[in-house]
Specification:
about 220 residues; mainly alpha; Arc Repressor Mutant, subunit A; Tetracycline Repressor, domain 2; two-stranded antiparallel ribbon
């Protein structure tokens, strides 16, 4: 009968190897949020997770590997937020708008994680697999466009529209924190209302989604 392997933490608590990888990623996330990406290291996450300095090397070959795993956690969380936001929409156009709002809100709440996600993706020849699977935000945008009336067979046009929608949300996320917008946010009833209005005024949704009665 096979026996499970355990690593002993510095405080004497055993970690199952299957859980240690997750614990290290979550430790990396905490360090990232508190201290920024420069503080991330295998030694730092070992200390944060309460395990020996050698333990992380069983799961990550180097700091870059660790950072990619933390970024993957972010893509997964963003995808879940987008799915939830879209599920509450009444029309395809509203669905696209809510996807954009969820994206920007996530970026605002997790600035260091958000930056790490894009820093790691930027150096890759393709977006990470977890950013493009069926449960991801990327696929949710594409599906919302098709539901709204775009031709699923026109792959180039659909890809460009998906990229445009993604870029629009990314641009809003980069600028929404400008202090000069604070009075306008208050006037409109808060930051989310401001984000929603800006996304709608970009015109991407109106261009790519056929109007429904509830959209008119």
């Amino acid at each position: 009968m096979a026996h499970a392997e355990f690593t002993t933490a510095q405080d004497g608590r055993p970690y199952h190897h299957g859980d240690l990888s997750r614990a290290l990623v979550l430790a990396g996330r905490r360090i990232l949020e508190k201290e920024g990406p420069n503080a991330l290291s295998l030694r730092a996450v070992a200390r944060e997770a309460g395990v020996s300095p050698a333990a992380p090397y069983h799961h990550f070959k180097d700091k870059c590997d660790l950072m990619a795993a933390v970024a993957s956690e972010g893509w997964h969380e963003l995808g879940e937020a987008i799915i939830l936001a879209r599920a509450g929409a009444k029309t395809p156009r509203e669905g696209l708008s809510e996807i954009g709002v969820a994206y920007v809100v996530f970026a605002r709440k997790n600035p260091n994680l958000y930056r790490l996600m894009y820093d790691t993706a930027c150096d890759s020849e393709d977006m990470p697999t977890h950013a493009k699977d069926e449960a991801s935000g990327w696929s949710q945008v594409r599906d919302a466009l098709v539901t709204g009336g775009m031709d699923p067979e026109d792959e180039l046009e659909l890809k460009l529209a998906t990229i445009a929608s993604w870029c629009a949300a990314h641009g809003v996320a980069e600028m929404v924190g400008f202090k000069e917008f604070e009075s306008l946010k208050k006037e409109m009833g808060g930051e989310e209302a401001f984000i929603r209005a800006i996304l709608d005024h970009l015109g991407i949704y109106a261009q790519n989604v056929r109007p429904h009665r509830a959209d008119a």
